[in-house]
């Protein structure tokens, strides 16, 4: 036994992992495993409101305010222009010049009404005159016009029509229609924004935004606006927290992104078109920050406003079709309860510097070591022109001050970690791929580096090691390594093809085990209870219906064959096609995702699913043919594009990243069962010595071993330095690594050449420096840990 050599080398490997720099990873254009597809639009949407010029008296204080806003990365400034105060617009012209000097784009908020008017006709005449005068005199410096402020709310509607009892949608619809025509008369390219509708759960004598729009639509032949304004105040909660709101006169519960999605769907349904959404007000009252402080007591109110600001901009600018976001407010209104503080201004500067002109990639799951998504942890990403990705991550869990994490599967050897208060212009901390731990806090932070779709933030596993699922003598077993307990999940199987259970696959959340029999699929719990079962459609002898795995969202994938092998005197015809199905065991919903690509043009050929990737985007397949049999060569299919490539050595080791991990062995050895550790720092494989060069790969792709071959060995080595090897005698196949990499499972067979040889399932415990014998018997096998 050569285990002592391993035990001496393992700490050296760990030290090497912490100190060394791996080579940069390449990406193939022909088939981009782990590639990122970015949206078309880049971010240029940092806005600030409202009425900054007016509240600073159009004076020196206005100039200083604009200068500060420009310095912190604000591009758009929302300025109120009340229609009843238009006799002298010289102050507004000062505002335009100050905005130009500070590279600020003005959104002119044309709002409110008149103190006196005799009837509706008189009101509209006054409205037309005011809009025409404002646009004619100020249009040279304003290209964006928002019509009305919170017109679905009775409080603000009464500023338009004093004394009214309820919101008059017909009047606003006509106001917007007339303003749109006047603005487009002077400049057809100007943008007209339907005034900021407020999202709220309280609409006494008013309307929720979607009901307001649905009623207004009746008064227009053609919608008189180019974008829709929305105000998403979220009370005493951060934007990712579920709260109650109204949509279509119904109370709905969800977070801010959920609300935007529902609002956008309603707009498309009402107007048969998607419109850009501008969030023209969002922010926190002081009292709301005080309430938040009771839950997040590690931060003062200034810090909580900054946290809310970062999260709000990050989430909204990642949510389609939001284009602009305006924080309320820079200068205090008469209530003085919403003003942005210095801490928030600083982090706004760092945030805008980081993601302006990037492409939002959306939210990526943060997972634990078992691959399960952690809902309270957030990771939003943005793609820069230089190919680097910015990750903004945080925790919304108020009960945990922090969690430890690593970042895995990078497209380069490292990323940089930045504090949000210092920004990406600071020095930062270098994090090696899957090695150096960092903290996830309630306050967001930045990661900057080369990433791909498979790159994940992984938190420390506090829920234990996943059970090891395996087969023995035709039945399914579960081994709990923490408690050293074996549980039989089935007991009525045997080694015959007709009665055996095989291909057991543990779900991502470790709650279910999917298995196959000759004619059916079955889902079990870890006590062996049958939760679901359904029949295969293909005949057992063509083996076309298969389980192919679970994705990170705990969905099960399997294939279903349409058609059968038809053999006549003149021709053999295979199945029509094979479908890939996704099944959610929680909801019991299933969905056909795609058809498997054909790997051979022969009429009797068909594809057989082998393994789904963890993100559900790639499928490994093999080729089958009626009356001929199965190939042992793997192919990988991009499910979205349908592109297929044949397996290569590095893909077999790690099918989700375009990385090569060469294994250096003498020519007199055959290398089998390569298995990469979760962090990609170690590789385990079986080494078998050739006897008189008789062991070899045959031309048909099958591997033949003579009976007199030498005993095979388990080898473990670092992917960064393969010179040092750990050797374990008498090992015949590698099962896989535990999720925390503390254990490695393998099988030792008593003899080779038998259909069901007697074998022993073993685990190499790396932390306690010992080998554990788990079980022994005939037909022991496993699809992985």
Automatic annotation (TrEMBL):
<feature type="domain" description="Glycoside hydrolase family 5">
    <location>
        <begin position="145"/>
        <end position="301"/>
    </location>
</feature>
<feature type="signal peptide">
    <location>
        <begin position="1"/>
        <end position="24"/>
    </location>
</feature>
<dbReference type="GO" id="GO:0000272">
    <property type="term" value="P:polysaccharide catabolic process"/>
</dbReference>
<protein>
    <submittedName>
        <fullName>Cellulase</fullName>
    </submittedName>
</protein>
<dbReference type="InterPro" id="IPR051923">
    <property type="entry name" value="Glycosyl_Hydrolase_39"/>
</dbReference>
<dbReference type="InterPro" id="IPR017853">
    <property type="entry name" value="GH"/>
</dbReference>
<dbReference type="Pfam" id="PF00150">
    <property type="entry name" value="Cellulase"/>
</dbReference>
<keyword id="KW-0326">Glycosidase</keyword>
<keyword id="KW-0732">Signal</keyword>
<dbReference type="GO" id="GO:0004553">
    <property type="term" value="F:hydrolase activity, hydrolyzing O-glycosyl compounds"/>
</dbReference>
<dbReference type="InterPro" id="IPR001547">
    <property type="entry name" value="Glyco_hydro_5"/>
</dbReference>
<keyword id="KW-0378">Hydrolase</keyword>
């Amino acid at each position: 036994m050569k285990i002592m050599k391993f035990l001496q080398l393992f700490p050296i490997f760990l030290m090497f992992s912490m100190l060394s720099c791996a080579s940069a990873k390449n990406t193939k254009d022909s088939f981009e495993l782990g590639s990122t597809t970015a949206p078309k639009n880049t971010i240029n949407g940092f806005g600030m409101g409202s009425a900054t010029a007016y509240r600073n008296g159009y004076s020196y204080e206005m100039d200083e305010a604009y200068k500060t806003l420009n310095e912190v990365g604000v591009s758009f400034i929302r300025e109120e222009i009340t229609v009843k105060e238009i006799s002298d617009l010289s102050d507004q012209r000062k505002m335009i010049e100050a905005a130009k000097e500070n590279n600020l784009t003005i959104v002119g908020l044309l709002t409110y009404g008149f103190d006196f008017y005799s009837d509706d006709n008189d009101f509209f005449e006054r409205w037309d005159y005011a809009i025409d005068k404002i646009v004619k005199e100020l249009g040279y410096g304003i290209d964006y016009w928002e019509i009305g402020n919170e017109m679905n709310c009775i409080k603000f509607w009464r500023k338009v029509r004093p004394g009214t009892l309820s919101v008059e949608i017909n009047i606003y619809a006509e106001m917007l229609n007339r303003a749109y025509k006047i603005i487009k008369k002077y400049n057809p390219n100007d943008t007209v924004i339907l005034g900021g509708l407020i999202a709220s759960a309280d609409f006494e004598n008013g309307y929720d935004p979607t009901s307001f729009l649905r009623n207004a639509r009746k008064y227009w032949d053609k919608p008189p606006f180019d974008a829709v304004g929305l105000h998403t105040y979220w009370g005493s909660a951060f934007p990712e927290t579920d709260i109650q709101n109204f949509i279509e006169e119904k109370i709905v519960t969800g977070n801010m992104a959920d609300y935007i999605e529902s609002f956008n769907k309603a707009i498309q349904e009402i107007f048969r078109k998607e419109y850009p959404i501008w969030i023209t007000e969002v922010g926190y009252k002081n009292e709301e920050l005080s309430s938040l402080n009771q839950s997040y007591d590690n931060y003062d109110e200034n810090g909580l406003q900054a946290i809310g600001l970062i999260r709000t901009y990050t989430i909204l600018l990642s949510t389609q079709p939001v284009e602009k976001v305006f924080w309320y407010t820079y200068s205090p209104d008469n209530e003085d309860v919403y003003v942005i503080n210095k801490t928030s201004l600083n982090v706004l500067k760092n945030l805008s510097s980081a993601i302006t002109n990037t492409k939002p990639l959306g939210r990526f799951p943060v997972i634990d070591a078992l691959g399960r998504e952690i809902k309270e942890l957030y990771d939003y990403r943005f793609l820069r022109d230089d190919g680097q990705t910015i990750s903004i991550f945080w925790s919304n869990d108020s009960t945990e001050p922090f969690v430890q994490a690593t970042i895995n599967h990078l497209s380069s050897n490292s990323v940089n970690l930045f504090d949000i208060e210092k920004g990406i212009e600071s020095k930062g901390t270098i994090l090696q791929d899957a090695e150096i731990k960092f903290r996830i806090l309630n306050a967001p932070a930045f990661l900057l580096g080369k990433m791909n779709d498979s790159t994940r933030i992984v938190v420390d596993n506090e829920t234990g090691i996943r059970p090891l699922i395996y087969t023995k003598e035709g039945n399914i077993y579960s081994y709990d390594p923490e408690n050293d307990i074996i549980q039989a999940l089935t007991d009525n199987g045997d080694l015959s093809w007709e009665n055996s259970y095989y291909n057991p696959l543990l779900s991502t959340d470790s709650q279910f085990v999917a298995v196959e029999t000759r004619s059916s699929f079955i889902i079990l719990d870890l006590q062996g209870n049958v939760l679901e079962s359904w029949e295969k459609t293909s005949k057992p002898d063509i083996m076309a219906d298969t389980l192919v795995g679970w994705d990170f969202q705990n969905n099960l994938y399997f294939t279903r064959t349409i058609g059968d092998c038809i053999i006549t005197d003149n021709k053999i015809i295979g199945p029509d096609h094979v479908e890939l199905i996704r099944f959610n065991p929680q909801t019991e919903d299933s969905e056909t995702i795609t058809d498997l690509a054909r790997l051979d043009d022969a009429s009797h050929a068909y594809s057989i699913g082998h393994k789904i990737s963890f993100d559900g985007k790639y499928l490994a397949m093999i080729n089958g043919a009626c009356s001929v049999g199965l190939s042992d060569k793997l192919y990988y299919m991009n499910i979205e594009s349908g592109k297929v490539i044949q397996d290569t050595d590095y893909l077999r080791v790690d099918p989700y990243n375009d990385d090569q991990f060469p294994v250096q062995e003498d020519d007199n050895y055959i290398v089998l069962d390569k298995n990469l550790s979760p962090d990609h720092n170690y590789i385990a494989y079986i080494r078998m010595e050739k006897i008189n060069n008789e062991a070899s790969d045959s031309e048909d792709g099958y591997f033949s071993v003579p009976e007199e071959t030498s005993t095979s060995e388990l080898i473990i080595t670092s992917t960064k330095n393969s010179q040092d090897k750990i050797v374990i005698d008498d090992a015949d196949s590698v099962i896989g690594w535990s999720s925390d990499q503390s254990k490695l499972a393998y099988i030792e067979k008593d003899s080779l050449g038998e259909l069901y040889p007697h074998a022993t399932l073993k685990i190499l415990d790396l932390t306690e420096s010992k080998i554990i014998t788990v079980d022994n018997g005939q037909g022991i096998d496993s699809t992985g840990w």
